[in-house]
UniProtKB/TrEMBL annotation:
<dbReference type="InterPro" id="IPR008928">
    <property type="entry name" value="6-hairpin_glycosidase_sf"/>
</dbReference>
<protein>
    <submittedName>
        <fullName>Glycoside hydrolase</fullName>
    </submittedName>
</protein>
<dbReference type="GO" id="GO:0005975">
    <property type="term" value="P:carbohydrate metabolic process"/>
</dbReference>
<feature type="domain" description="Trehalase-like N-terminal">
    <location>
        <begin position="8"/>
        <end position="132"/>
    </location>
</feature>
<feature type="domain" description="GH15-like">
    <location>
        <begin position="220"/>
        <end position="582"/>
    </location>
</feature>
<dbReference type="InterPro" id="IPR011613">
    <property type="entry name" value="GH15-like"/>
</dbReference>
<dbReference type="InterPro" id="IPR012341">
    <property type="entry name" value="6hp_glycosidase-like_sf"/>
</dbReference>
<dbReference type="Pfam" id="PF00723">
    <property type="entry name" value="Glyco_hydro_15"/>
</dbReference>
<keyword id="KW-0378">Hydrolase</keyword>
<dbReference type="InterPro" id="IPR045582">
    <property type="entry name" value="Trehalase-like_N"/>
</dbReference>
<dbReference type="Pfam" id="PF19291">
    <property type="entry name" value="TREH_N"/>
</dbReference>
<dbReference type="GO" id="GO:0004553">
    <property type="term" value="F:hydrolase activity, hydrolyzing O-glycosyl compounds"/>
</dbReference>
Length: 600
């Protein structure tokens, strides 16, 4: 497979990636960050997969059931036609919390004829370390490993178990199912129960999607992106993952391969802001509780990232036995970046807290906790904003005075002052306003490079950086500010490569970046839109949308030359920025239509 042509299914507990030919090539159970049971994505030889094989006469197509995360792969050869409806169950049980077991279901739906297929079921537990053996039992197939540690998964099916294990040919005469779960089932599955799970899950996602507003333009893209962001949320704690995978390289054959199955405060807070603007307030409430739970000590500094179960230690380990995606080693689990100091996270989190308190006023659940966190954030930022840090892009060597970090320190004070205004805390406003003004003046004086005609990556630098485009989004500068307009044009000239943007072009810890960071192109499009170059922005946006995979999904990066997707997948950052752009264009079209009607 030359592109990341995968669909994602999930149930806000875990997820699986399914190729456009219907093969499961990545899945971790029981949770997102558990060891993989299928990892062909990271090693085609030993990673393990769950494949559906048909002869060459079959035409295979794939789509999502509209407004759901149920993935339908169609296999058709003449009159012989069947579909696989892949999903992870998620729905509310009577009077209970959501039913989201650690399992995936493949529902085989007979459309016509007598189609034939075979199954290649090859689980490799614990990241394929050691041997996984499968045993046929009376009610299920058990696959287990005990080389590193003991682990098992269970397969239930309406088909003959021996035929599946031996990859024998199956003729589909009626609907059937295969269920792969982490736990042994107490109530034996049947085809009828699998069908009921499918329908209940479908209803859940349709109801969830129904809360998302309908937009005049790009509604399909907004809906798919919103569903993808929901799939990257972990219901149990409120954490939001950066992506569902680990070690998919930013560039084939290079070493920028990281584990993204964690909750970065920055990424997650940006996701929450967008998703709550779409009307999904429960996701926001759970995430704010996640933050509250992480900060029991008022003076405790936030890490830049946490495990999805609130783990604070994310030791980075290399899995030497795996070949890596397209041979791109190393394969990493854990992420050493959790040690880093990044001052921007406080502003981004404070922005979310302000948005939620503005929407739900002081009646918001845990309002007092959030006010305590607000005061703590101001205390930390006030004492640290003058310090250098690692910045948004997590440079692993020297600390610098990154412009984006300073802008977000300003944002932290600005939003804290707004919260204080809502709560009538006059003495705090008087105390905090001078600090906000001091940070703004510092940015104005030191981040601007007269020679370049732009706000640059860091103080005293000549290098440009796409993150600086967010100065306007956070309200640090106005869209009509001459300096900002000049910065947008300078970044477009220097970082643009055939319609796609570099994050930056200066050398970092691993050399020169050689692929486009997708979110940066969305930021640039938004900036063009804001400064009034809307036609150009729309052209860039429609071109960028054409680079998504066949299901409208984006990863972290795009190759400049081939336009293939690279990096971890699907990427929350990319989809939240897509939504922001799409909403801007949709709102503008609606406004233009209103004006046109008034003229008529």
């Amino acid at each position: 497979m030359d592109n990341l042509d995968y669909g994602i299914i999930g149930n806000c507990r875990s997820a699986a990636l399914i190729s456009k030919t219907g093969n499961i090539e990545w899945c971790c159970l029981p949770e997102f960050d558990s060891p993989s049971i299928f990892a062909k994505l990271l090693d085609e030889e030993i990673g393990g997969s769950f494949e559906i094989n048909v002869d060459s006469s079959y035409v295979i197509t794939q789509k999502y059931e509209p407004f759901t995360t149920i993935l339908i792969t169609s296999f058709k050869s003449g009159e012989n036609h069947f579909e696989i409806h892949d999903f992870m169950p998620r729905y509310r049980k009577e009077g209970k919390k959501y039913h989201a077991p650690p399992e995936l279901v493949r529902y085989f739906k007979l459309i016509s004829g007598a189609p034939k297929f075979s199954v290649h079921y090859n689980p490799k537990l614990e990241y394929a370390v050691g041997k996984t053996e499968s045993f046929i039992k009376k009610d299920f197939v058990a696959s287990l490993t005990h080389d590193v540690k003991f682990d098992t998964i269970f397969l239930y099916t309406s088909f003959d178990k021996k035929t599946i294990i031996n990859s024998g040919e199956i003729t589909l005469k009626e609907d059937g199912y295969i269920l792969v779960g982490y736990n042994e089932k107490l109530l034996l599955p049947t085809t009828d129960r699998a069908y009921l799970d499918l329908q209940n899950t479908k209803v859940y996602w349709l109801n969830w999607s129904n809360l998302t507003p309908t937009y005049k333009k790009f509604n399909k893209e907004i809906s798919r992106s919103a569903l993808t962001l929901k799939l990257l949320s972990y219901d149990k704690t409120g954490a939001v993952l950066a992506a569902a995978t680990t070690s998919l390289p930013e560039t084939i054959g290079e070493v920028r391969n990281w584990d993204y199955r964690f909750c970065w405060i920055r990424d997650a807070s940006m996701v929450i802001k967008v998703v709550s603007e779409l009307g999904h307030k429960n996701v926001a409430k759970r995430y704010l509780q996640f933050i509250i739970d992480l900060i029991p000590d008022k003076a405790e500094k936030l890490q830049i990232m946490y495990g999805i179960n609130k783990e604070k230690k994310l030791t980075e380990v290399t899995l030497e036995h795996l070949a890596g995606y397209k041979g791109s080693k190393p394969v990493r689990i854990g992420n050493a970046a959790y040690h880093q100091k990044q001052n921007d996270i406080y502003g981004i989190l404070m922005d979310v807290i302000y948005e939620q308190m503005a929407k739900f006023s002081v009646d918001i659940e845990n309002g007092e906790d959030l006010w305590a966190i607000t005061k703590g954030i101001v205390w930390i930022v006030s004492n640290n904003w003058k310090d250098a840090d690692k910045g948004i892009w997590e440079f692993r060597t020297e600390d610098r005075h990154f412009t984006f970090s300073k802008v977000l320190c300003w944002t932290a004070l600005d939003r804290a002052i707004k919260v204080a205004e809502m709560l009538g805390k006059k003495h705090k406003i008087e105390k905090w306003e001078p600090i906000r003004a001091e940070i703004w003046q510092d940015i104005y004086d030191n981040a601007w490079n007269e020679e370049i005609g732009a706000y640059t990556q860091s103080y005293g630098s000549k290098e440009l950086d796409a993150s600086v485009l967010l100065m306007e989004s956070y309200g640090c500068v106005k869209a009509k500010d001459e300096r900002y307009i000049s910065t947008v044009h300078a970044i477009g000239k220097e970082l643009n490569n055939d319609g796609l943007l570099y994050r930056y072009k200066n050398e970092d810890d691993f050399g020169l970046p050689s692929s486009s960071f997708t979110v940066c192109t969305f930021w640039y499009i938004n900036s063009l839109f804001k400064i009034g170059e809307r036609k150009k922005a729309l052209e860039y946006f429609e071109r960028l949308l054409s680079y998504s995979n066949h299901l409208g999904l984006f990863s972290e990066d795009i190759d400049f030359k081939t336009k293939r997707l690279l990096g971890n997948f699907p990427q929350a950052y990319s989809h939240l920025a897509l939504i922001e752009c799409a909403i801007n264009f949709s709102k503008k079209e609606s406004e233009d239509q209103i004006l046109e009607n008034l003229r008529d």
